[in-house]
Amino acid sequence: MNAMLAARAHQGSTELHLTTIPVPEPGPFDVLVKVASAGIAPGMMRLLEAGAFKHLPTTLGHEAAGTVAAVGADVPGFALGDRVRVHPNLTCRSCVYCRTDREMMCAEQAMVGHAAFGHVPMPLYEEYHDGGLAEYVRVPHWLLDPLPDAVGFDVAAKVHDLANAVRALKLADLPLGATLVVTAATGAMGTATVKLAPHFGVARLVLVGRSAERLRDVRRLAGPLPTETLALEELPEDWETSQDLTRRLRDLAPGGAHAVLDYVPAGAVAEQATAALATGGTMVHMGGNPGVVRVPARVLMTNCWRIVGTRACTRTDAEHVLGLLERGVLNADELITHRFPLAEAAQAVAAMQSRSEPIWMTVVNP
Q1: Is 1's pLDDT higher than 70?
Q2: What's the pTM?
């Protein structure tokens, strides 16, 4: 096969374009993966509009899993037909951040099929910017993780989101028996966190989202874990200025929450949820909110609060998820609520952006 269908981003356009392009040829250290499943993340279109894609045109999609279709001459450890997932983080692999499980901070950090975050020369991104929303994707062999037999391709494609939740949970530094607040709980990151929470010492969840009905659907993911929900639509209209979210969270957790994992991309939720922390609590933000969290330094000092930002997971986080899946202690199949063929990739993106219906994780199956 010499040509393939791919979902591409073009210079000067904020739309997704379905295009037929040549199948990439693997170099000596590359592996060509026949994509069985690719994840959709709505944030990629916002980053495209913001100019964060440094190499256009490009094939979108930083989440992919499939089978090895071709192997470069100098690739160790992989053979035709192997089941794999692509770890999307392109980094130097040698700086202090890469050597201390903080690869997302590398000055060369970028993602296959996604954005580049640094401002230094990025030879790997220039070479491997094309992503997985295509029939095939070419990646350097060191970005591949073998898939356990028990892990299906759809879940494997979304390991990155699950690993992002693992990173946020690790940064929260939760004590055993913790009360955890999760905002934007009805989205991909929120639902991933709910599934993973029991593995990080959480004894009680408080889920915050816009819709009471959708929160009820997410609540069942927690299983027997005691879980409360708080819908923004049920707060007074002036809640963003009257601190009603903080008051409601304090009602649900009078002693305060041990941590808040905040995935909300805009608005006052981050600030008001932070104010509901217990002494020594941590707010971890991974939502890309451009708003301001106004906490006086004296309040941080008095309450011994920590506010932590993180923009991605690491390889270790992904391996943590794969280990849980392989041992059967984590089942993430139910998180995949929508599947689309590659020819309908634009509709998949639109569905994720509008969320006019309940939607947790979405994949495209070429």
Answers
A1: no
A2: 0.94
